[in-house]
């Protein structure tokens, strides 16, 4: 995976939430802030 430079748009990606719904970063387009949290060991 390539390193991301500061002050550039984030690449789009898709993850599965805790309810098994797929959520993409592009779902939040035109929102000012997006917080992404990875819970390690959360099952």
How does this model look, in words?
The model has no long low-confidence stretch (mean pLDDT 84). A two-stranded antiparallel sheet has the order 1-2. The chain has strands at 14-16, 22-24. 0% of the residues lie in helices and 14% in strands. The protein has no helices and two strands. It has 43 residues and is mainly beta. A hairpin with a 5-residue loop joins strand 1 and strand 2.
3D shape: globular
Between the first and last Cα atoms, what is the distance in angstroms? 26 Å
User: Compute the gyration radius: what is it?
Assistant: 12 Å
Parts with pLDDT < 50 across at least 5 consecutive residues: none
Percent of residues in beta strands? Answer: 5-15%
Mean pLDDT: 84
**In DSSP terms, counting alpha (H) and pi (I) runs of 4 or more, how many helices?**
0
Counting DSSP E segments of at least 2 residues, the number of strands comes to 2
**Class by SSE composition:** mainly beta
Helix content: under 10%
- List the helices and strands in order: EE
Strand order of the largest sheet: 1-2
How many strands, what sense, and barrel or not for the largest sheet? 2 strands, antiparallel
Topology, element by element:
Blueprint: E1 14-16, E2 22-24
Antiparallel strand pairs: 1-2
Summarize the entry for a quick read.
This protein is mainly beta and 43 residues long. Helices cover 0% and strands 14% of the residues.
């Amino acid at each position: 995976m390539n390193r991301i430079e500061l002050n550039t748009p984030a690449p789009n990606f898709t993850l599965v939430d805790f309810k098994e719904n797929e959520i993409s970063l592009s779902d939040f387009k035109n929102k000012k802030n997006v917080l992404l949290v990875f819970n390690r060991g959360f099952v």
